[in-house]
Design brief:
The complex is a heterodimer of chains A (495) and B (776). Chain A is α+β, with helices and mostly antiparallel strands and 495 residues long. Among the domains of chain A are: 157 residues, Roll (Ubiquitin-like (UB roll)), CATH 3.10.20; 71 residues, [2Fe-2S]-binding domain (DNA polymerase, domain 1); 105 residues, CO dehydrogenase flavoprotein, C-terminal domain (Enolase-like, domain 1, 2-Layer Sandwich). Chain A is 31% helix and 22% strand. Chain A has a 5-stranded mixed beta sheet, with helices on one face. Chain A has a 5-stranded mixed beta sheet with strand order 3-2-6-4-5. A 5-stranded antiparallel beta sheet of chain A has the order 11-12-17-13-14. The two termini of chain A are 45 Å apart. Chain B starts with 24 loop residues before the first helix and ends with a helix. In chain B, helix 9 runs parallel beside helix 10, helix 10 crosses helix 11 and helix 14 runs parallel beside helix 15. Chain B is of the alpha+beta class and 776 residues long. Chain B is globular, with a radius of gyration of 27 Å. In chain B, the strands form 7 sheets. An 8-stranded mixed beta sheet of chain B has the order 3-5-1-12-9-10-11-20, sandwiched between helices. Chain B is built from 19 helices and 29 strands. Chain B folds into 3 domains: 174 residues, Aldehyde oxidase/xanthine dehydrogenase, a/b hammerhead (Aldehyde Oxidoreductase, domain 3, Alpha-Beta Complex), CATH 3.90.1170; 339 residues, Aldehyde Oxidoreductase, domain 4, CATH 3.30.365.10; 138 residues, Aldehyde oxidase/xanthine dehydrogenase, molybdopterin binding domain (Aldehyde Oxidoreductase, domain 4). Classes of the chains: A alpha+beta (495), B alpha+beta (776). At the A-B interface, helix 2, helix 3, helix 4, helix 5 and helix 19 of A face helix 1, helix 3, strand 27, helix 17 and helix 19 of B.
Chain lengths: 495, 776
């Protein structure tokens, strides 16, 4: 293919178009802001995307037009920002120094104490307020899942968030500049491949999925970076060199969500946030489950494809997707192959992905009529935590009430996300009742030999796994057996 | 700042007892509040990164640092040999904490060397290239294992005794024994440790440090450099959180930055990565508590013998006073007629534990509350009933295990009020009824009180200084020895000064804490910040006022009683003189418009050998009712509601105090629930970043969170405007969350058995306790 190659990166930073030729693949947005631009309002708290002190908004031309999302600047690579609009805390206050309504609400309600997390909290709230100024407590808590505050106990921040709902966003800077920024970003997105090389390595931003295929044929050992919620830490924590890096987070034809009678196909670049709506609407319990993946910033960056491609045994999406019978399409050059998701995970750190292969899409089937499904995550902290145990159950009963098919998959129980085939076998053909469950739970010990680590002991993981099957059974009987914070909490439902 | 508004002559803005916003609030929300890493660093600033040990206990045969030195951007690699003064930053004067390890490492993560490079990234990359040859030695990372292995104490233990515990236990009506494990806690200040040293002339150096204790940093830097304290200036504008974690733990970074800065005559900044910060700096002490209690059939305690062993880490740091304070708070609000309490500050091969909000008090108090809980379950009563029957009396039954008389007891009133406003009794009945019909989800409710002693137990720390200047235009420069870490200390002290002079707070410029302006300060710790510095600032203001009054009398020919400071004016006879005009007159009359204030807390004394005295000037009180739900299948839980009534005396600033109470409670809740420190079998801490160490989120705070200050309270002692300290006491209100979880667990066995739920009560601990109950 005769691809036009651009050797510079172009994006908008607050009010200014930034053109960079000298960027390393390892450069993070946070360091760029703080060290290169002296925009020090954005803070580094953890450098791993967990505390939110570095929260900024990134606007991009998504399928629905210009969209601003909160992201963690500490693990966002500068190279991934081509044709984006980066908005920092410095952009909020008016030219005359007047505070933005969110900032004013934070001051009025004593929402800051030490103040270090505050810019990040303001930015997370700002992202939500732009979407809709008035939000309920459950929504605000969700928006703030990725923002740690150690001083206030959050009560004052919640009051401030409530108060921000009193101000309309109609004349906000980003609302007013929407058309102009859209035009600017469209102009920057010129259809060329971006390839920037410097002394510290090379990064490439392919122009399309086909271009990505070409790039990976030429650089089969390249680091493919989608949301960078994992790869970001390779750089900030393990100080690994990711060159040549290929940033795929802003490739339109990898971000498609295609629905048909069978189910849905998510392009590999679809973020958790983008997939959330379909999941919540079509798969019981998945709305609430999905909201517990990372924090809001991580959901805005991270992709379903990346969660699969990195092969982690504790990723949140593989267990429910395996239980649902999802498949994954891998592409190399012009060749594609589609395999069952469970077959993709071979062993710890080993997937069915050859050099040059990339995850192109994930296919999730709809539930059939009468099928029951639930996904559960157990973690030390309810939100923004990594699973100790993550289990998903997919059940079909025949007319006599016997188990006709059952798919159970767990994360955190083995070296890979894995089916509980012995438990499934123990349940198959049996009546769906307490006695069958009691008879089946011990089969978990044949399926899994979990580890003890800082998230949980082996003993706890095994007991929790068994009890999640009991929970699933009780929920299919219509019992409410989960601790509920807000009334829009998970409800068992049938498709 | 708004200077357009004409100063009011009826009321000043920002006086005392007003809900004034934090003085940096505008800067916080706009990102313009400068933390140390935001400051413009001098041209040529170098960056440091510490190389940490990868053994819990080992001799160091050799360190091959050639590859480190050869790495791009590296300027120098410092080891113990490069310390020009004394290789020690122990705050306890026990000389047991090297700046850089020399010949051996005593915990996994101990700093061995420091890389100094042109950029922070270069320093971090190079640090990984070191090859250390270790000679492995046996180690213990757990406090109980350390006791079993006969590990030494890092500092002298303490025993408190009152009455005759042994006889009381021998003649007990009822008697029980038990044990409790209490986990530690990482501070997780959002701004990690950081220091920047700028070399000066001769032996001088200026160090910017994110520290709660600039004077100690000054002394430690001087010590390590081998120069007098007078050569070292330390400055702290603000911290992004401290919580005790920056009381002593900043010394290391400051000392190394200063050594490198002097060696290379360039500014040096050290900002450890979050993981290194959590691995290499101390935390709240984990405790093991063993108790033996005698009690009558009503639940009144007859005698108590308890031992509190703490995981202190490899060196003493502040473990002596921390374990002492644990013992000082075992009694909490309860009279113990016969008691013997012993501390065991155990050495372990872990990072040296340090100050953390409450300073051992929370662990002591939690152990004491476990005893109350045990008695309640043994007698089949509501723990609140046991609490009330054991409360200190107001005029009798009021002597503590350290022989101080509790003179200001208001706990009965506090508890009665929160019991009523929270509808505790009806809700407890509802919880019990709910549990009868709910097989999987169980609820629990608990009311726990707090009494917390205010003052440093090291009496000499209870002193403070302040410096107040009035300039010719009437604007006021205020400096004091305390540090601002988000607690609003600067705001409160400025309110005091505004109140003294009766000027709007906008006229008062609060400036960075520096050892140049106020010397020999104590750490901003022990909740003492506004008590000590507010008084010192008031004293400085009063000195100036005395001079101003004398001037007015002479200048206007009026008696003293005709001169008064009224809002934004000075009234002399019938004349109202705007404050700036009056100050200008005073200047022309050559009145000294500057004063250094001083304060020392009266009445207190403490004889540690005897275990007797009056270590605390007064007590702060509070109580909380928490209600929780647990899932008995997974151990997951949720705090449904918390109702708090807390005593801050006459609040200097109710808005700031309320924020302190809310924040302390949630932080305490984190300590007792999801915040778990976990060491592996190599003695390596594996929960050293927010990805693995889980502090509360917005979605963890109590869903219903009613927090009130006891508006009727006042301090019976003459503290600053009769207020009380607020930083630490409300942390322990969260004890109610642990006990409520415990009650929900106990419901599984019909409340017949005390679940002995240890802390932190992670979902795993809750579920395992549920399993125990099923077998009970």
């Amino acid at each position: 293919m005769n691809m036009v190659i651009r050797d510079e990166l172009r994006f908008v930073l607050n009010d200014e178009v930034v053109v960079l030729k000298n960027v390393s693949p390892n450069d993070t947005l946070l360091d760029f802001l703080r060290l290169n631009r002296r925009l020090t309002g954005t803070k580094e708290g953890c450098a791993e995307g967990d505390c939110g002190a570095c929260t900024v908004l990134v606007g991009r031309l998504a399928s629905g037009g210009l969209t601003y999302e909160s992201v963690n600047a500490c693990i966002r690579f500068v190279g991934s920002l081509d044709a984006c609009h980066v908005v920092t805390i410095e952009h909020l206050a008016a030219v005359n120094g007047n505070l933005h309504p969110i900032q004013q609400a934070m001051v009025d309600h004593h929402g800051s104490q030490c103040g270090f997390c505050t810019p990040g909290i303001v930015m997370s709230l700002y992202g939500q307020w732009l979407e809709t100024p008035k939000s309920d407590a459950a929504t605000i808590e969700k928006v703030l899942q990725g923002n740690l505050c150690r001083c206030t106990g959050y009560e004052a921040i919640m009051r401030a968030a409530e108060a921000m709902g009193e101000s309309s966003n109609g004349d906000d800077k980003l609302v007013v500049s929407h058309e102009a920024i859209t035009r600017t970003l469209a102009g920057l997105k010129d259809g060329s491949r971006v390839e920037v090389s410097g002394p510290e390595g090379t990064f490439i931003v392919p122009a399309s999925a086909d271009d990505l295929a070409d790039v990976l044929e030429a650089h089969p050992k390249a680091t493919v970076v989608a949301g960078s919620t994992d790869v970001g830490l390779w750089v900030t924590k393990h100080m690994r060199d990711i060159s040549p890096a290929v940033f795929i987070n802003n490739i339109a034809d990898l971000q498609t969500i295609a629905e048909d009678a069978h189910g849905v196909t998510f392009g590999a670049g679809v973020t958790y946030s983008e997939a959330a709506e379909w999941m919540a609407a079509h798969i019981p319990t998945m709305g609430a489950f999905w909201d517990r993946i990372g924090g809001q910033q991580v959901r805005n960056m991270g992709t379903v494809g990346g969660n699969i491609a990195n092969g982690s045994p504790i990723g949140d999406t593989p267990p429910p997707l395996i239980a649902l019978g999802a498949s994954v399409t891998l592409r190399q050059g012009t060749q594609s192959r589609t395999i069952a998701l469970e077959d993709f995970f071979i062993d710890y750190g080993k997937q069915d992905r050859k050099p040059g292969d990339f995850v192109a899409a994930v296919h999730v089937p709809r539930l059939g009529k009468g099928e029951k499904f639930a996904a559960y995550k157990v973690s030390k902290r309810r939100d923004e935590d990594i699973s100790a145990v993550c289990g998903a159950f997919h059940l079909t009963l025949d007319e006599a009430g016997l188990v006709q098919s059952v798919r159970i998959a767990f994360g955190g129980m083995a070296a890979t996300p894995k089916r509980a085939s012995a438990v499934e076998k123990a349940l198959m053909g049996n009546p769906w009742n307490e006695a069958s469950i009691e008879a089946a739970v011990d089969a978990f010990e044949a399926d899994y030999k979990p580890l003890t680590d800082w998230r949980a002991s082996a003993q706890y993981r095994m007991l929790a796994a068994k009890n999640l099957l009991k929970r699933f059974y009780l929920e299919t009987q219509g019992e409410a057996v989960q601790v509920v914070r807000h009334s829009n909490a998970p409800q068992m439902a049938e498709a | 700042m708004n200077t357009q508004v004409k100063p009011s002559s009826t009321e000043i803005s920002g006086g005392v007892h007003k809900p004034r916003r934090h003085d940096s609030a505008h800067k916080h929300v706009t990102g313009t509040a400068d933390y140390l890493d935001d400051m413009n660093a001098p041209v040529g600033t170098l960056h440091g990164c510490l190389g940490l040990s990868e053994r819990a206990h080992a001799g160091i045969r050799s360190m091959d640092l050639d590859a480190v030195r050869a790495a791009p951007g590296v300027v120098d690699v410092l080891t113990a040999r490069d310390v020009p003064g004394v290789n020690d930053i122990s705050p306890s004067a026990r000389h047991d904490e090297p700046v850089l390890a020399d010949g051996q490492c005593q915990f996994y993560g101990q700093p061995l060397f420091a890389v100094i490079a042109e950029t922070r990234a270069a320093a971090r990359h190079a640090t990984q290239l070191a090859k250390i040859d270790y000679e492995d030695r046996p180690f213990e990372s757990d406090v109980v294992a350390a006791m079993a292995a006969d590990y030494p104490h890092v500092t002298d233990p303490l025993t408190l005794a009152y009455g005759d515990a042994a006889s009381a236990l021998d003649s007990a009506t009822n008697r029980l024994q038990g044990e409790m494990r209490i986990g530690g806690q990482d501070h997780f200040y959002l701004e990690g440790h950081i220091a920047m040293a700028i070399p000066g002339e001769d032996d001088e150096v200026t160090v910017f440090s994110s520290t709660q204790h600039p004077s100690e940093v000054q002394h430690m830097v001087g010590h390590a450099l081998g120069v007098p304290s007078a050569a070292v200036t330390v400055k702290t504008r603000r911290m992004g959180g401290g919580f005790g974690g920056k009381e002593t733990q900043g010394n290391q970074f400051a000392a190394i930055a200063a050594i490198a800065a002097k060696k290379h005559n360039r500014a040096v900044k050290i900002r450890p990565d979050r993981d290194d910060d959590m691995i290499a700096t101390g935390k709240r002490h984990d405790f093991h508590v063993a108790y033996d209690v005698a009690y009558d059939n009503e639940g009144r305690i007859e005698g108590l013998d308890a031992t509190f062993a703490a995981r202190c880490g490899f060196s003493s740091d502040l473990s002596g006073p921390v374990t002492d304070r644990a013992l000082f708070h075992v009694d909490n609000c309860y009279f113990l007629p016969n008691v013997k309490l012993a501390s065991r500050p155990m050495k372990t091969n872990t990072v040296s534990n340090t100050a953390f909000r409450g300073f051992g008090g929370p662990q002591g108090m939690l152990g004491g509350e476990r005893v109350i809980e045990e008695i309640a379950y043994a007698l089949g009563k509501d723990p609140l009933e046991i609490r009330k029957i054991n409360f200190y009396g107001e005029n009798e039954r009021n002597i503590t295990p350290y022989h101080q008389i509790v003179e200001d007891n208001i706990i009965a009133r506090i508890v009665a009020e929160v019991e009523r406003t929270s509808d505790y009794q009806a809700r407890r009945e509802a919880v019990i009824a709910y549990n009868k019909t709910s097989p999987v989800i169980r609820k629990g409710i608990a009311l726990t009180p707090v009494k917390f002693g205010i003052s440093f137990t090291a009496t000499w720390f209870n002193q403070a200084g302040a410096l107040v200047h009035i300039y010719q235009d009437g604007s006021i420069h205020l400096n004091h020895g305390g540090t601002e870490m988000g607690q609003g200390l600067n705001t409160k002290v400025a309110q005091v000064v505004a109140d003294e002079f009766q000027v709007d707070q906008e006229n008062i410029r609060i400036t960075a804490t520096t050892t140049e302006k106020v010397p020999n300060t104590s750490a901003t710790a022990a909740s003492s910040g506004s008590d000590l510095n507010g008084m010192a600032a008031a004293n400085a203001a009063q000195q100036i006022k005395v001079r101003l009054v004398a001037f007015a009398c002479e200048h206007y020919g009026v008696p003293e009683e005709q001169v008064s400071f009224v809002p934004n004016h000075v009234q002399v006879g019938n004349q109202m003189i705007p404050f700036p005009d009056f100050i200008q007159q005073a200047y022309f009359a050559r009145v000294q418009l500057s004063a250094a204030g001083f304060y020392k807390t009266p009445e207190i004394h403490w004889d540690r050998e005897k275990g007797q005295g009056q270590p605390f000037f007064y007590f702060a009180y509070g109580a909380c009712v928490s209600e929780v739900s647990i899932d008995t299948l997974t151990g997951e839980y949720h705090v449904d509601r918390a109702d708090i009534l807390h005593d801050v005396g006459r609040s200097l600033n109710p808005a700031i105090d309320l924020g302190q109470v809310q924040g302390a409670f949630v932080q305490g809740m984190g300590w007792l629930t999801t915040e778990e420190l976990w060491w592996d079998d190599k003695g390596r801490l594996r929960t050293h970043a927010p990805s693995t160490y889980k502090i509360p989120l917005a979605s963890d705070k109590p869903k219903i969170f009613n927090v009130e200050l006891a508006a009727w309270s006042t301090n019976s002692k003459r503290t600053i405007r009769r207020s009380k300290a607020v930083g630490e006491p409300p942390f322990m209100l969260a004890n109610s969350v642990l006990e409520a979880l415990s009650m929900a667990v106990a419901s599984v066995a019909e409340y017949r058995v005390c679940p002995r739920l240890d802390a932190p009560a992670t979902p795993e601990r809750v579920l395992m306790a549920v399993e125990r109950m099923k077998k009970a």
